[in-house]
Structures are given as structure tokens and as C-alpha cells.
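Q: My labmate handed me this sequence with no annotations at all. I'd like to see what the chain might look like in three dimensions before we decide whether it's worth expressing. Could you predict it?
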Amino acid sequence: MVSQRPQQLAPEQKQQLNLSATDTIRLHAQGLYFSWGKHPALKKVSLDLQAGEMFGLLGPNGAGKTTLISLIAGLIAPDQGELSVLGYSTRRSAHLARKNLGFVFQSVSLDRFMTVEENLLFAAGLQGLNKAQTEANLAHLYTIFPIHQWLKRTVGSLSGGQKRLVDIARAMVHQPGVLILDEPTTALDVPSKNSVWETLKTLQAIDGLTIFVATHLMDEASTCDRVGFLNQGELNWLGTPAQALDELPDQSVSSVRTVTLADWFVWKMNGGARKPC
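A: Here is what I predict for the chain of 277 residues:
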């Protein structure tokens, strides 16, 4: 079975980010609650992501970002709340929900002793793709990812940036509608980070892919369509990077330099609240 391809947003839809348009919702979370024993990790988290949207999840260490990703991945089940992917409930239709998800975790999920091509073919087999589907999907990926020249090389011989690109291609081999990434550029140098983000932007533009990325790098988050701020298990802010910067009080940053999303993040960590209307 080939996963349903997402509908790409029209420019005006993407600009407005009209989340009332339920026919374009690709990931829906409502009232997610999860605790590790007596310690709440997520508290009533709600979120809708549209087709073709790139969403950046921000938050300090221990905020609950990885727990939320684990819930979406189906690695753990929420104590309360509902979660669906392309309309498939992760409780009632878990197999179909997972078929429409691609995951890139902090650690590369590749066999270092296998070649790049073998890793991709293995991933396609795990997704149940037949030979024709595999060949078609890989041919498409090779037009986006600069990995064709590495196919016969073992993963262990690649650089960190090359491994990450192959890992993202692995996550996309079954053409999911939603791609989840947990700090995908950790420990990469600047050229490798740029290559990863250029590839993600290409996937978003060409395939209408919905991308959910957890990151602590504010320059990366600034390129997202929307960002969310998760702190102590609560998703207490959602908006565009421009809206985030607009919230900063005039006196919070020196006028001698440009205000950045990092300034807003620090301000939120120090208890910053929305400007009064």
C-alpha cells in the first residue's frame, strides 16, 4: 500500500494558515495528556498541522518534546486525548496512521555496515512496498536528495551530514504525508545543516509534505511557517515567527542589533506573556 499523498496548500492558504479548513489537516492532536508515573510530561496538548506546513516545536530540555514525538510515533500511548494522522486514529487505526508518518530521530536509524542502497531497500521492505513501488519512490527521492553517488558506499563511510540526508531519505521511502524530525541537525557543521534544511524545504515545496521538527536552534525555527513553545508539558504558545517577534516588549532587547527568535525564546523562558490587546 502506498501512503496517501498530502494536498499542497495554495499560497493564500499557507499565508493565512487557516486551521479551520479540516480537509487539509494532516496531524490532529486534541487534549493529549501523558505522565511518567506521578510526573506529568504532557498536559492537554492540542495541535493541528496542515498539508504543506512546516512546524517548529521549541522548548527547553525536559519540556516534553521527545515525549510528544514518541506519542505521535506510537511508541507510547496517551493517558488521555486523541491523536490522528491524515484522519487515521493512532488508537483505532494505528497501522494506517504509521503508514502515513516518516520519522527521523536524534540518532541516525541506519545500519552502518550496509550500503546506502541496501538501507533504503530494507526500509522499503519494512513498509511493505513491492518492487515497482520501491523503484518509483526511490527514483523520485533521487531527484530531491543528493545521495545517488553514495548508493554503493557503506553508511559507516559517510560523513555526519551525508548520513543525516540518507536517514531522511529512509524516512521518506514510503512517501508519507507527515515527516517528524527530532533535532535533525544536532552535531552537524554549518554546510551540512544548510543541506538538510534545503532538502526539507524542497520536500515541502515539491511534495506538499507536512513537516514537524523539534529543534533548539532558533535560526532553523525562524524558517518554519509556525512555531510552538512547549514548557513543562504545556504547549502555551502557537504562531508564526513574525508574531513571536511582535510580542517582545520594546525594552527587552537593545536597539543596536536586530531582534531574533532567540530573544523571544529567552523572554518566554523568563515568563514573558502576550502583549495586551
